[in-house]
Protein backbone atom coordinates (compact mmCIF):
# COMPACT_ATOMS: atom_id res chain seq x y z
CA UNK A 1 0.00 0.00 0.00
CA UNK A 2 1.34 3.42 -1.00
CA UNK A 3 2.08 6.10 1.55
CA UNK A 4 -0.79 8.59 1.43
CA UNK A 5 0.56 12.15 1.37
CA UNK A 6 -1.90 14.33 3.26
CA UNK A 7 -2.32 17.78 1.74
CA UNK A 8 -4.65 18.53 4.62
CA UNK A 9 -1.90 17.86 7.17
CA UNK A 10 0.59 19.99 5.23
CA UNK A 11 -2.02 22.75 4.90
CA UNK A 12 -2.51 22.76 8.69
CA UNK A 13 1.24 23.08 9.25
CA UNK A 14 1.64 25.89 6.71
CA UNK A 15 -1.39 27.77 7.98
CA UNK A 16 -0.03 27.62 11.55
CA UNK A 17 3.28 29.12 10.37
CA UNK A 18 1.48 31.84 8.38
CA UNK A 19 -0.70 32.71 11.37
CA UNK A 20 2.44 33.35 13.44
CA UNK A 21 4.02 35.42 10.66
CA UNK A 22 0.87 37.50 10.12
CA UNK A 23 0.58 38.17 13.87
CA UNK A 24 3.77 40.27 13.60
CA UNK A 25 2.52 42.42 10.70
CA UNK A 26 0.40 45.01 12.50
CA UNK A 27 3.38 46.08 14.58
CA UNK A 28 5.77 45.99 11.60
CA UNK A 29 3.56 47.43 8.85
CA UNK A 30 0.56 48.94 10.62
CA UNK A 31 -1.91 46.46 9.15
CA UNK A 32 -2.49 42.87 8.01
CA UNK A 33 -2.76 41.60 4.39
CA UNK A 34 -6.12 42.16 2.70
CA UNK A 35 -7.57 39.72 0.16
CA UNK A 36 -10.59 40.70 -1.94
CA UNK A 37 -12.56 37.86 -3.52
CA UNK A 38 -15.22 38.43 -6.17
CA UNK A 39 -17.90 35.77 -6.52
CA UNK A 40 -20.38 36.05 -9.38
CA UNK A 41 -23.44 33.78 -9.24
CA UNK A 42 -24.25 30.86 -6.99
CA UNK A 43 -22.47 27.87 -8.46
CA UNK A 44 -22.41 25.49 -5.44
CA UNK A 45 -18.74 24.54 -5.98
CA UNK A 46 -17.66 28.19 -6.22
CA UNK A 47 -19.76 29.18 -3.17
CA UNK A 48 -18.07 26.44 -1.15
CA UNK A 49 -14.52 27.28 -2.37
CA UNK A 50 -15.04 30.96 -1.56
CA UNK A 51 -16.28 29.96 1.91
CA UNK A 52 -13.08 27.90 2.28
CA UNK A 53 -11.02 30.97 1.34
CA UNK A 54 -12.86 33.14 3.89
CA UNK A 55 -12.30 30.48 6.58
CA UNK A 56 -8.58 30.25 5.80
CA UNK A 57 -8.24 34.06 5.99
CA UNK A 58 -9.92 34.10 9.41
CA UNK A 59 -7.71 31.23 10.61
CA UNK A 60 -4.49 32.99 9.55
CA UNK A 61 -5.49 36.55 10.43
CA UNK A 62 -5.70 37.87 6.87
CA UNK A 63 -8.41 40.46 6.21
CA UNK A 64 -10.98 39.23 3.71
CA UNK A 65 -13.60 41.05 1.73
CA UNK A 66 -15.92 38.96 -0.41
CA UNK A 67 -17.91 40.83 -3.03
CA UNK A 68 -20.93 38.80 -4.12
CA UNK A 69 -22.89 39.64 -7.25
CA UNK A 70 -25.73 37.79 -9.06
CA UNK A 71 -24.90 36.17 -12.39
CA UNK A 72 -27.10 38.77 -14.11
CA UNK A 73 -24.32 41.34 -13.54
CA UNK A 74 -22.83 42.67 -16.79
CA UNK A 75 -19.18 42.29 -17.74
CA UNK A 76 -18.77 46.09 -17.53
CA UNK A 77 -20.10 46.10 -13.96
CA UNK A 78 -17.65 43.33 -13.01
CA UNK A 79 -14.84 45.23 -14.72
CA UNK A 80 -15.73 48.32 -12.66
CA UNK A 81 -15.42 46.26 -9.45
CA UNK A 82 -12.01 44.95 -10.50
CA UNK A 83 -10.83 48.46 -11.41
CA UNK A 84 -11.97 49.82 -8.06
CA UNK A 85 -10.08 47.04 -6.22
CA UNK A 86 -7.00 47.72 -8.38
CA UNK A 87 -7.02 51.33 -7.19
CA UNK A 88 -7.80 50.57 -3.55
CA UNK A 89 -4.48 50.86 -1.70
CA UNK A 90 -5.85 48.88 1.25
CA UNK A 91 -6.25 45.77 -0.96
CA UNK A 92 -3.19 43.55 -1.55
CA UNK A 93 -4.74 40.65 -3.43
CA UNK A 94 -7.66 40.29 -5.85
CA UNK A 95 -9.24 37.00 -6.86
CA UNK A 96 -12.16 36.50 -9.22
CA UNK A 97 -13.64 33.07 -8.57
CA UNK A 98 -13.84 30.93 -11.72
CA UNK A 99 -15.78 29.86 -13.66
CA UNK A 100 -17.55 33.10 -14.52
CA UNK A 101 -21.04 33.00 -16.11
CA UNK A 102 -21.07 32.14 -19.83
CA UNK A 103 -21.81 35.71 -20.98
CA UNK A 104 -18.46 36.88 -19.62
CA UNK A 105 -14.97 36.64 -21.05
CA UNK A 106 -12.87 35.31 -18.16
CA UNK A 107 -9.57 36.22 -19.84
CA UNK A 108 -10.69 39.82 -20.27
CA UNK A 109 -11.59 40.09 -16.57
CA UNK A 110 -8.42 38.33 -15.34
CA UNK A 111 -6.29 40.53 -17.57
CA UNK A 112 -7.87 43.60 -15.96
CA UNK A 113 -6.47 42.70 -12.51
CA UNK A 114 -3.17 44.51 -11.93
CA UNK A 115 -0.44 41.80 -11.94
CA UNK A 116 0.90 42.82 -8.52
CA UNK A 117 -2.51 42.03 -6.94
CA UNK A 118 -3.13 38.87 -8.99
CA UNK A 119 -2.92 36.32 -6.14
CA UNK A 120 -4.13 33.55 -8.50
CA UNK A 121 -1.13 34.01 -10.81
CA UNK A 122 -3.48 33.89 -13.81
CA UNK A 123 -2.59 37.29 -15.35
CA UNK A 124 -0.44 37.00 -18.54
CA UNK A 125 2.34 38.93 -16.79
CA UNK A 126 2.55 36.30 -14.03
CA UNK A 127 2.16 33.43 -16.50
CA UNK A 128 5.03 34.85 -18.58
CA UNK A 129 7.14 35.34 -15.43
CA UNK A 130 6.82 31.63 -14.70
CA UNK A 131 7.93 30.68 -18.20
CA UNK A 132 10.79 33.20 -18.17
CA UNK A 133 11.84 32.25 -14.62
CA UNK A 134 11.32 35.80 -13.43
CA UNK A 135 9.76 36.94 -10.14
CA UNK A 136 5.98 36.77 -10.16
CA UNK A 137 3.03 34.99 -8.61
CA UNK A 138 2.80 31.25 -9.25
CA UNK A 139 -0.74 29.90 -9.45
CA UNK A 140 -2.00 28.12 -6.37
CA UNK A 141 -2.73 24.52 -7.42
CA UNK A 142 0.61 23.94 -9.24
CA UNK A 143 2.45 25.59 -6.35
CA UNK A 144 0.57 23.34 -3.90
CA UNK A 145 1.51 20.23 -5.90
CA UNK A 146 5.21 21.13 -5.70
CA UNK A 147 4.89 21.79 -1.96
CA UNK A 148 3.26 18.36 -1.52
CA UNK A 149 6.11 16.65 -3.42
CA UNK A 150 8.71 18.48 -1.32
CA UNK A 151 6.88 17.73 1.92
CA UNK A 152 7.06 14.01 1.12
CA UNK A 153 10.77 14.39 0.10
CA UNK A 154 10.07 13.11 -3.40
CA UNK A 155 13.15 13.45 -5.61
CA UNK A 156 12.25 15.32 -8.78
CA UNK A 157 15.56 15.87 -10.57
CA UNK A 158 16.13 13.37 -13.37
CA UNK A 159 12.74 11.69 -12.88
CA UNK A 160 10.21 11.08 -15.63
CA UNK A 161 7.14 13.15 -14.85
CA UNK A 162 3.93 12.73 -16.82
CA UNK A 163 1.17 15.32 -16.51
CA UNK A 164 -2.30 14.36 -17.75
CA UNK A 165 -4.06 17.58 -18.77
CA UNK A 166 -2.84 20.77 -20.41
CA UNK A 167 -4.98 23.46 -18.77
CA UNK A 168 -3.55 26.92 -18.16
CA UNK A 169 -4.51 26.63 -14.49
CA UNK A 170 -2.84 23.29 -13.68
CA UNK A 171 -1.35 21.11 -16.44
CA UNK A 172 0.84 23.69 -18.17
CA UNK A 173 2.21 25.52 -15.09
CA UNK A 174 2.91 22.34 -13.09
CA UNK A 175 4.78 20.95 -16.12
CA UNK A 176 6.97 24.06 -16.15
CA UNK A 177 7.59 23.85 -12.38
CA UNK A 178 8.62 20.19 -12.74
CA UNK A 179 10.86 21.06 -15.69
CA UNK A 180 12.49 23.81 -13.61
CA UNK A 181 13.35 21.13 -11.05
CA UNK A 182 15.02 19.08 -13.82
CA UNK A 183 12.37 16.42 -14.32
CA UNK A 184 11.88 15.06 -17.84
CA UNK A 185 8.30 16.11 -18.46
CA UNK A 186 5.66 14.74 -20.85
CA UNK A 187 2.19 16.28 -21.14
CA UNK A 188 -0.69 14.01 -22.16
CA UNK A 189 -4.05 15.28 -23.41
CA UNK A 190 -7.25 14.16 -25.11
CA UNK A 191 -5.47 13.48 -28.43
CA UNK A 192 -2.57 11.50 -26.92
CA UNK A 193 -2.38 8.07 -28.52
CA UNK A 194 -1.80 5.02 -26.29
CA UNK A 195 -2.02 7.17 -23.17
CA UNK A 196 -1.49 4.21 -20.79
CA UNK A 197 1.87 3.49 -22.45
CA UNK A 198 2.97 7.08 -21.76
CA UNK A 199 1.61 7.28 -18.20
CA UNK A 200 3.15 3.86 -17.37
CA UNK A 201 6.59 5.38 -17.86
CA UNK A 202 6.06 8.03 -15.17
CA UNK A 203 8.03 8.10 -11.95
CA UNK A 204 5.79 11.03 -11.02
CA UNK A 205 2.26 11.04 -12.43
CA UNK A 206 0.11 14.16 -12.10
CA UNK A 207 -3.55 13.60 -12.97
CA UNK A 208 -5.27 16.86 -13.88
CA UNK A 209 -7.67 15.68 -16.54
CA UNK A 210 -11.04 16.41 -14.89
CA UNK A 211 -12.47 12.91 -15.49
CA UNK A 212 -13.63 10.89 -12.49
CA UNK A 213 -11.46 7.81 -11.74
CA UNK A 214 -9.70 8.11 -15.14
CA UNK A 215 -6.33 6.72 -13.97
CA UNK A 216 -6.49 2.95 -13.47
CA UNK A 217 -3.83 0.54 -12.19
CA UNK A 218 -2.68 -0.45 -15.69
CA UNK A 219 -1.74 3.18 -16.38
CA UNK A 220 0.65 3.38 -13.43
CA UNK A 221 4.23 2.13 -13.09
CA UNK A 222 5.01 0.04 -10.01
CA UNK A 223 6.39 2.42 -7.35
CA UNK A 224 5.25 5.65 -9.06
CA UNK A 225 4.31 8.80 -7.15
CA UNK A 226 0.71 9.65 -8.05
CA UNK A 227 -0.73 13.11 -7.45
CA UNK A 228 -4.46 13.51 -7.98
CA UNK A 229 -5.65 17.02 -8.88
CA UNK A 230 -9.21 16.09 -9.88
CA UNK A 231 -12.28 17.30 -8.00
CA UNK A 232 -15.17 15.36 -9.53
CA UNK A 233 -18.39 13.66 -8.55
CA UNK A 234 -18.39 9.88 -8.83
CA UNK A 235 -21.16 9.24 -11.40
CA UNK A 236 -22.31 6.12 -9.51
CA UNK A 237 -22.19 7.23 -5.88
CA UNK A 238 -22.41 11.01 -6.30
CA UNK A 239 -19.52 11.31 -3.85
CA UNK A 240 -16.49 13.56 -4.34
CA UNK A 241 -13.69 11.74 -6.17
CA UNK A 242 -10.47 12.47 -8.00
CA UNK A 243 -9.10 11.68 -11.46
CA UNK A 244 -7.38 8.60 -10.02
CA UNK A 245 -9.09 5.35 -9.11
CA UNK A 246 -7.51 5.38 -5.65
CA UNK A 247 -8.58 1.87 -4.64
CA UNK A 248 -7.15 0.40 -7.84
CA UNK A 249 -3.90 2.39 -7.82
CA UNK A 250 -2.98 2.51 -4.12
CA UNK A 251 -1.22 -0.87 -4.12
CA UNK A 252 0.90 -0.03 -7.16
CA UNK A 253 2.06 3.48 -6.27
CA UNK A 254 4.75 4.27 -3.69
CA UNK A 255 3.15 7.61 -2.73
CA UNK A 256 -0.31 8.85 -3.55
CA UNK A 257 -2.64 11.75 -2.70
CA UNK A 258 -6.33 11.33 -2.00
CA UNK A 259 -9.41 13.35 -2.93
CA UNK A 260 -10.58 14.96 -0.71
CA UNK A 261 -7.67 15.90 1.53
CA UNK A 262 -4.84 16.01 -1.03
CA UNK A 263 -4.12 18.84 -3.45
CA UNK A 264 -7.37 20.79 -2.75
CA UNK A 265 -6.47 22.07 0.74
CA UNK A 266 -3.07 23.16 -0.59
CA UNK A 267 -4.73 25.26 -3.32
CA UNK A 268 -6.30 27.48 -0.67
CA UNK A 269 -3.16 27.42 1.49
CA UNK A 270 -1.02 28.61 -1.44
CA UNK A 271 -3.56 31.36 -2.07
CA UNK A 272 -2.88 32.55 1.48
CA UNK A 273 0.90 32.36 0.79
CA UNK A 274 0.48 34.36 -2.40
CA UNK A 275 -1.61 36.98 -0.56
CA UNK A 276 1.14 37.39 2.04
CA UNK A 277 3.78 37.64 -0.73
CA UNK A 278 1.77 40.34 -2.55
CA UNK A 279 1.26 42.20 0.73
CA UNK A 280 5.00 42.12 1.54
CA UNK A 281 5.92 43.41 -1.94
CA UNK A 282 3.28 46.14 -1.56
CA UNK A 283 4.74 47.15 1.82
CA UNK A 284 8.31 47.18 0.41
CA UNK A 285 7.22 49.60 -2.31
CA UNK A 286 5.99 52.11 0.24
N1 LIG B 1 -9.99 32.06 -9.19
C1 LIG B 1 -9.88 30.72 -9.08
N2 LIG B 1 -10.90 29.94 -9.43
C2 LIG B 1 -10.76 28.59 -9.33
C3 LIG B 1 -9.57 28.00 -8.82
C4 LIG B 1 -8.52 28.87 -8.47
O1 LIG B 1 -7.41 28.43 -8.06
N3 LIG B 1 -8.71 30.22 -8.61
N4 LIG B 1 -9.49 26.63 -8.61
C5 LIG B 1 -10.69 25.84 -8.66
C6 LIG B 1 -11.50 25.77 -7.39
N5 LIG B 1 -10.75 25.93 -6.13
C7 LIG B 1 -10.39 27.16 -5.75
O2 LIG B 1 -10.89 28.15 -6.13
C8 LIG B 1 -10.64 24.84 -5.21
C9 LIG B 1 -11.01 23.56 -5.53
C10 LIG B 1 -10.96 22.54 -4.57
C11 LIG B 1 -10.53 22.82 -3.29
C12 LIG B 1 -10.56 21.82 -2.20
O3 LIG B 1 -10.11 22.09 -1.11
N6 LIG B 1 -11.08 20.63 -2.43
C13 LIG B 1 -11.28 19.69 -1.36
C14 LIG B 1 -12.68 19.13 -1.46
C15 LIG B 1 -13.71 20.20 -1.28
C16 LIG B 1 -15.13 19.66 -1.30
O4 LIG B 1 -15.49 18.98 -0.35
O5 LIG B 1 -15.86 19.97 -2.27
C17 LIG B 1 -10.27 18.57 -1.44
O6 LIG B 1 -9.85 18.25 -2.56
O7 LIG B 1 -9.93 18.06 -0.39
C18 LIG B 1 -10.15 24.10 -2.97
C19 LIG B 1 -10.19 25.09 -3.93
C20 LIG B 1 -11.63 26.36 -9.74
N7 LIG B 1 -11.79 27.78 -9.65
TrEMBL record:
Occurrences of domain Tetrahydrofolate dehydrogenase/cyclohydrolase NAD(P)-binding (ranges): 139-281
Record-listed NADP(+) binding positions: 165-167, 231
Tetrahydrofolate dehydrogenase/cyclohydrolase catalytic domain ranges (all copies): 5-120
Pathway(s) served: One-carbon metabolism; tetrahydrofolate interconversion
An example Gene Ontology molecular-function term: methylenetetrahydrofolate dehydrogenase (NADP+) activity
One GO biological process term: tetrahydrofolate interconversion
Gene3D superfamilies reported for this sequence: Leucine Dehydrogenase, chain A, domain 1, NAD(P)-binding Rossmann-like Domain
Family: Belongs to the tetrahydrofolate dehydrogenase/cyclohydrolase family.
HAMAP family membership: THF_DHG_CYH
Name of protein: Bifunctional protein FolD
Amino acid sequence: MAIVISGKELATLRRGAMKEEVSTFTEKYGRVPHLAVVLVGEDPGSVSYVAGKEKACIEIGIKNTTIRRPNTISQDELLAIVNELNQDDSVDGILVQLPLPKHMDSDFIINAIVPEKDVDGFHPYNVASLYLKQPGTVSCTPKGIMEILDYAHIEIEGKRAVVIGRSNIVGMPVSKLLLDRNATVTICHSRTKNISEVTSEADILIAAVGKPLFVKADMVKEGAVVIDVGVNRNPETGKLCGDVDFEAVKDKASYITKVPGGVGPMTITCLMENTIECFLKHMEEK
